[in-house]
Design goal:
The complex is a heterodimer. Chain A has five helices and no strands. Chain A is mostly helical. Chain A has a single domain (23-119), classed as Substrate Binding Domain Of Dnak, Chain:A, Domain 2 (Up-down Bundle), CATH 1.20.1270.390. In chain B, helix 2 packs antiparallel against helix 4 (51-66), helix 2 (28-42) packs parallel to helix 5 and helix 4 runs antiparallel to helix 5 (71-205). The chains are: A mainly alpha, B alpha+beta.
Amino acid sequence: MKPILIFCVCLAMAACATVRPGPEIFDTAEKAIQVAEIAGGDEFAPVEMRFAREKLASAQKGMDKQKYEVSVYLLEESEINAELAIEKSRTARSRRRVNELRKRNEELDARMRATFGDEFK
Amino acid sequence: MNRSLTRISLILMLVLLSACTAAPKKDLALERVRDELDNLRSNTELAGYAPLALGEAERALRKAEMSAGDDLYRSYLVYMADRRIQIARTMAEREQYEQTLDQLQDEHSKMLIQASQLEADHARMEAAEARLLVATTSEEAQRAMEEKETAQQKEAESARAAQLSAEEADQARRLADSRASEAKFARREADLASQQVTSLTRQLENLQLRETESGVVVTLGDVLFASGQARLVEGGRSSLEEVVDLLQTEPDKKIRVEGHTDSMGDADANLLLSEQRAQAVREALVSLGVASERVSALGMGEDFPIASNEDEVGRARNRRVDVILLDN
């Protein structure tokens, strides 16, 4: 809680002043990217993953160039891309399960028809 | 908590920024995002599935719309709103998939249940068929049994018929038997009669002893052989026992057995027959205990009659075997 308050203050100051935020400012985006990686983001949402990483890298560069404001936006954008990658990955898994089960059902159906003929359904 | 604080800080930031920047202009990017959200909202298939995420997207968009900050900040807010809409969309899609998944799982279990029911039905049907088969089989067995019974009846009938014919045959046989027994009886009578004759003859002719130059001659009448035969008749051997007893009283003397016939028939045949008969008697004597080296046998034919060949009584006397106990 405290670091966020500090972060807000920093942001506020960054708007009009040039005070460099601490390195912990990257934590949230970095952590989000890690979670997205675990969720299979690279497989299911490579575009979002790339955005998340690029924006994180840009934010880091921006910090180095003391573009604090844009860096903060970039970090937010990086994080939300990681978040979207997580959601897309989970959705993709659901879709995959649906397709698998649909296929299994079709196979089962065919097998049942072969076995029981018109009696089935 | 963390996020809401961040948001609060963003709002704070926005307020601060708006203090430094000019009023917002018309934003095509913002309009595009608005369209996108409206599009998602009006999608009846998806809209209901992610209400919370949609609400967040809505709030983010409104924040972007209301922002009076610089272009950088504004485009950041628009970007964030866009991402929120994307998130809402993918979450809605996922919810839809999850529902479809439930449905498919339902179908799957229903199919399995139906399969097991059908299997049970089939098993029942097969059992019923099996029962029917058993019934049919027993019916067939019954029929087979009936057929068998019929066959047995027929067999019995034919057996009865056979028995009848057998009885007829039996009767015929009995008739034949009775005739045979009649015949037998007659024969026995005849035999008895002939036996009487034979015993009479024996009394008359057995062990006729004559003294000759060669020695004592025991003449065996023609009772030993049937007419024309060279084999001893039944009981012929026993009738020789007396002869043997006599012969054994003089064990050191040689014995000559001579066969004679009447003059009837071929002389050579008679010679042969007389010799064979002599041999048969010799063998019989040996078998009754006379030492074989003592006995010789000789066929004499018809040339040494002892009576006339003109009448039957004479011929009967001539048909004989002489057992001669030789003197020297």
